């Protein structure tokens, strides 16, 4: 019998899990509640740790060509007068063995989806079921229930359904509520502008997903006190995304301040592939439990560390009442 795997969530995390787990003898189905048509014009970065996995371990060079990624050359930190205070070159950091690459989120998603659903590499393609909302999960029996009432059984269920995860609630046995961090973010292509919630001119509370649109006029009002050279960039925006940044315990979500959200999902997927990839037929319950224990032991400390770094990087760049920039973009990179 085949090894049946269900992935709940058809975003970058879910598609990455399907790609990493693909192998002969596996039957993989991805369940996505949306129809995968709506997306804010937004950029996403894959850090060197993730881009290396996609290219070297998963051999996705050909698939990623269609995503037209742009290699990030480095960071520059400016003060409010427009003076550079810190420069971090990335291309010279050969120890990373990979590049920080910027993609349009939808382009990267389409490339990963194409890789997941295309037969080859010695394995069957994964199946994607859209407009399929999961409402229940029996973690012990290995069963998910869709909004339609359909029950689907599996040997392994992977939760990749984001900060509002339904699977998280069933794993924990209680509802885990995301906690506001006190920061919200405007998103314009690859520009992310963090703003304290009390300084916002619109309410971000209900705007927590990538498909939420902000108000251009209100954004410009929020940044009215910024230098002209900053506002001249913001004036070029044709649309803007808006979401409230939220944190969560005990299972992690990543703030965007390290750009590691998608990259940690790729690492998680690689860990799943490492311990379940060679299983070519239906495993025993003990094999499943042992594999999950191995994944947890390899990933928990690493993911928790990156989560803490992301929280630290969200600190204000200047002390209150001071213009001196304390932020160092490379503080938590190595």
Radius of gyration: 21 Å
Query: What order do the SSEs take from the amino end to the carboxyl end, as H and E?
Result: EHEEHHEEEEHEEEEEHEEHHEHH
Q: Say which CATH homologous superfamily of the largest domain is assigned.
A: FAD/NAD(P)-binding domain
Reading side by side through the largest sheet, how are the strands ordered? Answer: 8-2-1-12
Number of DSSP strands? 15
The domain count comes to 2
CATH architecture annotation name of the largest domain: 3-Layer(bba) Sandwich
State the helicity in percent bands.
25-40%
* Largest β-sheet summary: 4 strands, parallel
Counting DSSP H or I runs of 4 or more residues, the number of helices is: 9
Gross morphology is globular
Q: Please identify the top-level CATH class of the largest domain.
A: Alpha Beta
Question: Mean of the pLDDT scores?
Answer: 84
Strand content: 15-25%
Q: What separation lies between the terminal Cα atoms?
A: 45 Å
Low-confidence stretches: none
CATH topology heading of the largest domain:
FAD/NAD(P)-binding domain
SS class: alpha+beta
Question: What is the gist of this entry?
Answer:
The chain has helices spanning 12-21, 48-57, 61-65, 105-117, 166-172, 216-222, 228-234, 261-276, 285-313; strands at residues 3-8, 26-31, 43-46, 70-71, 74-78, 84-89, 101-104, 127-129, 134-138, 143-146, 151-153, 156-159, 179-188, 191-196, 241-247. With 334 residues, it is of the alpha+beta class. β5 (74-78) and β6 form a beta hairpin.
């Amino acid at each position: 019998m085949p090894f049946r795997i269900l992935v709940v969530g058809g975003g970058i995390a879910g598609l990455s899990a399907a790609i990493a787990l693909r192998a002969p003898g596996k039957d993989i189905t991805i369940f996505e509640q949306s129809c995968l048509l709506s997306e804010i014009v937004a950029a996403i970065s894959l850090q060197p740790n993730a881009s290396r996995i996609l290219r070297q371990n998963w051999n996705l060079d050909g698939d990623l060509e269609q995503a037209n990624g742009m290699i990030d050359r480095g960071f520059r930190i400016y003060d409010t007068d427009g003076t550079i205070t810190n420069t971090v070159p990335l291309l010279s950091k050969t120890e990373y063995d990979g590049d920080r690459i910027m993609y349009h989120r939808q382009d990267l998603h389409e490339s990963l989806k194409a890789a997941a659903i295309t037969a080859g590499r010695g394995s069957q393609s994964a199946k994607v079921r859209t407009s399929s909302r999961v409402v229940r999960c029996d973690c012990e029996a290995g069963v998910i229930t869709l909004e339609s009432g359909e029950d689907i059984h599996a040997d392994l269920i992977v939760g990749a359904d984001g900060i509002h995860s339904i699977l998280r609630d069933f794993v924990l046995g209680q509802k885990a509520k995301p906690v506001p961090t006190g920061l919200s973010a405007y998103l314009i292509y690859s520009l992310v502008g963090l703003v304290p919630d009390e300084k916002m001119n619109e309410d971000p509370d209900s705007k927590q997903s990538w498909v939420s649109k902000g108000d251009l006029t209100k954004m410009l009002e929020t940044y009215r006190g910024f230098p002209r050279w900053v506002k001249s960039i913001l004036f070029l925006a044709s649309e803007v995304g808006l979401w409230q940044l939220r944190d969560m315990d005990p299972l992690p979500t990543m703030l965007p301040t390290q750009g590691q959200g998608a990259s940690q999902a790729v690492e998680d997927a690689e860990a799943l592939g490492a311990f379940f990839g060679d299983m070519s037929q239906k495993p025993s319950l003990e094999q499943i439990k042992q594999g999950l224990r191995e994944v947890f032991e390899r990933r928990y400390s690493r993911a928790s560390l990156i989560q803490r770094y992301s929280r630290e990087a969200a600190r204000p760049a200047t002390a209150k009442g001071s213009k001196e920039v304390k932020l160092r973009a490379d503080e938590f990179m190595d």
